[in-house]
């Protein structure tokens, strides 16, 4: 799960950075506000890469997805991109858990079978 979720979060890192560049063109927003909010979100993306398997990591990821969709109020294309990344986040969590379960099942089967003897050839 960690690999899939981290890949999604790193993709979001770049999208947030590019959205900040677009938001800077809004005359109602100061550059410091845009980069403070975007910078916090970008740092959160990187930190979540390491915390996604810890308790609350997935929930924080969902909060980030909601914030990404909500950023559409400032940069309208983010409604679409936020929805795409929310779907990617769901898929990363869902299929990542299935992969982790399969790996654990295979490891348990291998441990139960015991070490292969060299005479079995």
SSE inventory with pairings:
Elements lengths: L1 H22 L7 H21 L5 H14 L6 H37 L8
Name the features.
mainly alpha, 0% strand, elongated
Structure description:
The chain has 121 residues and is an all-alpha fold. Helix content is 78%, strand content 0%. The protein has four helices and no strands. The protein has helices spanning 2-23, 31-51, 57-70, 77-113. Helix 1 runs antiparallel to helix 4 (77-113). It starts with a helix and ends in an 8-residue tail after the last helix.
What's the gist of this structure?
This protein has 121 residues and is mainly alpha-helical.
The helix-and-strand class reads mainly alpha
Give the number of DSSP strands: 0
Query: What does the radius of gyration come to?
Result: 20 Å
- Continuous helix count: 4
- Written as H for each helix and E for each strand, in order along the chain, the element string is HHHH
What's the overall geometry? elongated
Show unreliable segments: none
Strand content: under 5%
Helix content: over 70%
The whole-number mean of residue pLDDT values reads 91
**What separation lies between the terminal Cα atoms?**
37 Å
| Largest sheet, strands/sense/barrel | none
